[in-house]
Amino acid sequence: MGALAKIFTWWNGATVGTGLWTRLHGEEVGKDDAGNVYFRDKKNPVRRWVIYEGSNDGSRVPPAWQLWLKGTIDDLPEKALPPVRKFQQEPTPNLTGTMAAFRPDGALGSGKVRPASTGDYEPWIPE
């Protein structure tokens, strides 16, 4: 991404204003596996925010960090939460608008035909 595009876009990482605010008032507290960086205000630690690596999409923030951002837990996730268990799956971002999104039978792009009606439907008719 070019420098000019970085100045004028808000959907890919931080804007110039957010970057400046973060440098002046923010304290970096952690980074997740996706590269998102988490901050809290130096004077008011209750104020928290994230600088995304890539597109700004809240579903790309892992659940543990969501808890921290919303103030549900005070400590950082690795301190406040129990270790990940074997049966737990990795969270997935919102896939709407991508080729991996769920498409029911009969939807455009699903490649499947909707099943025929079974004839057991009776529309409601108001009296």
Automatic annotation (TrEMBL):
Q: Where is the stretch described as Disordered?
A: 86-127
NCBIfam families, alphabetized: PRK08183.1
Q: What is this protein called?
A: NADH:ubiquinone oxidoreductase subunit NDUFA12
Q: Which InterPro entries match?
A: NDUFA12 (IPR007763)
Lineage, opening ranks = Bacteria, Pseudomonadati, Pseudomonadota, Alphaproteobacteria, Sphingomonadales
- Give any Pfam family that matches: NDUFA12
